[in-house]
Predict the structure.
Amino acid sequence: MVIVRAKDYQDMSRKAANIISAQVIMKPKAVLGLATGGTPVGTYAQLIDWYKKGDIDFSQITTINLDEYRGLPKTHEQSYWYFMHEQFFNHVNVDESRINVPDGMNPDSEKACREYDNVIREAGGIDLQLLGIGVDGHIGFNEPGNAFELETHCVDLTEQTIKSNQRFFGDGESVPKQAYTMGIKSIMQARKVLMVVNGKEKAEIVKKAFFGPVTPEIQASILQMHPDFTIVGDEEALSLI
Ligand code: PGA
């Protein structure tokens, strides 16, 4: 585990974007596992900036997103498909046919999940997986539980996650109660894992997840066992370690 200390959010974003761009420069056909949430937005903005300056080319990459709300169409502003296009894909030269996000509108959850596992397998696995972390230690939508779910699966979101994500939804609009998420095995099989984390509300979970026991109660804790895991955090998020 490598911990990179950043001064602030902008510095965190730049340092994380540097690692991603190094991956793409080294391997133009890289398979990038991507994440949504507030934390990686600055990382995407930095990558867009470098792309516009001609310093990075995304034309050959494949992207595989971690998760999607069940029941939200791609056109819904809060779908992760929409988020990723707004925050990143629409601004760079990634090939639309190589963008992968779980199909939230497939009502057959078994089928949706198995299809997504095939996408990951057929892409040859993930070269670099970008992650955020929830205040309860979730990665993707792998919520605290009794076991590490291995493959793509349908989850019931916890009250904590629903509450935390309510900020993105309009007044009176409710957060979906379920999501499709990549499993822990697929994340752990990524050849490199990069976590971005900022803000004091994440300090406690960073300490517990990476300096405490490995337990499915804190899903991110399993990353302690990953052979190439880097955390890029700002001062506040890393203040307790
Ligand atoms: P956040 O979400 O980046 O919006 O804090 C992180 C997560 O839930 O994975």
In short: Helices lie at 9-26, 41-52, 80-87, 109-122, 159-165, 184-188, 203-211. Residues 72 and 79 are 6 Å apart (CA to CA). The longest strand covers residues 192-197. The chain is about 30% helix and 15% strand.
